[in-house]
């Protein structure tokens, strides 16, 4: 893990206390170890995978398919962001005002190659509410380890079950409908994201 950038570390809306998610070290982090023969046998005996499924997965990893999927996922998370200038333009405010919102935790950003990037998922098309409310409560819930790609995936894919109904929503859908951010926080906690 890269050390947090002290320039951004104390800003409330900056994810992971300023950890830089765009460094070469971060991109290379996916290099893992091979499973031991005991671990392979456990997976097969436990019924998690058949021998054929395991061998197919192992071959896909050897071909670099997993590494490519990880690279694409990280790249998608970086592309789905705005620079400070673009975010300020979206909100119709100055960059100084945007920085004040970030300092208060009312918008979220992460550091990528020494630059703040603002995830697009937090911005709405509603001029009366251009940013989802409650981000100041949501930002600390991600913790120090969650990559912006994981957060992006959660916001667009996690399935929130709304108490007392049969309805389910992604966090983005829930917040777009004006739902309480506490429901998202509860889901994060239940999913052991902290």
Task: Please give a structural write-up.
With 194 residues, the chain is mostly helical. The chain has a domain at 27-75. The chain has helices spanning 24-28, 37-45, 51-62, 65-79, 84-91, 95-103, 135-138, 148-157, 171-176, 181-190, and strands at 81-82, 110-112, 115-119, 160-161, 168-169. The strands form two sheets. Strands 1-3-2 form a three-stranded antiparallel sheet. Strand 4 and strand 5 (168-169) form a beta hairpin. Helix 5 crosses helix 6 (95-103). The longest helix has 15 residues, at 65-79. It is globular, with a radius of gyration of 19 Å. The two termini are 17 Å apart.
Short description:
With 194 residues, this protein is mostly helical.
**Rg, alpha carbons:** 19 Å
- With strands numbered from the N-terminus, the spatial order across the biggest sheet is 1-3-2
Helix content: 40-55%
> Structural class of the helix and strand makeup?
mainly alpha
Low-confidence blocks of residues? 24-30
Which range does the strand content fall in? Answer: 5-15%
Largest sheet geometry: 3 strands, antiparallel
**Total DSSP helices:** 10
Number of strands: 5
Residue-averaged pLDDT, rounded?
Answer: 82
Distance between the termini: 17 Å
> Which geometry do the CA atoms define?
globular
Order of helices and strands: HHHHEHHEEHHEEHH
């Amino acid at each position: 893990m890269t050390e947090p950038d002290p320039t951004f570390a104390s800003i409330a809306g900056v994810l992971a206390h300023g950890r830089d998610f765009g460094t070469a070290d971060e991109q290379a982090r996916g290099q893992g170890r091979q499973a031991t023969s005991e671990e392979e046998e456990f997976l097969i005996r436990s019924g998690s995978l058949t021998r054929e499924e395991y061998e197919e997965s192992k071959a896909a990893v050897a071909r670099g398919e997993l590494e490519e999927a990880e690279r694409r996922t990280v790249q998608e998370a970086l592309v789905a962001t705005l620079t400070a200038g673009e975010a300020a333009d979206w909100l119709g405010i100055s960059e100084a005002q945007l920085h004040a919102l970030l300092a208060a935790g009312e918008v979220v950003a992460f550091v990528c190659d020494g630059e703040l990037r603002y995830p697009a998922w937090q911005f709405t098309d509603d001029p009366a509410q251009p940013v989802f409310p409650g981000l100041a409560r949501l930002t600390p819930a991600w913790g120090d380890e969650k990559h912006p790609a994981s957060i992006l995936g959660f916001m667009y894919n996690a399935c929130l079950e709304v108490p007392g109904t049969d309805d389910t929503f992604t966090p983005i859908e829930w917040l777009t409908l004006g739902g309480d951010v506490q429901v998202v926080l509860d889901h994060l906690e239940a999913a052991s994201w902290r």
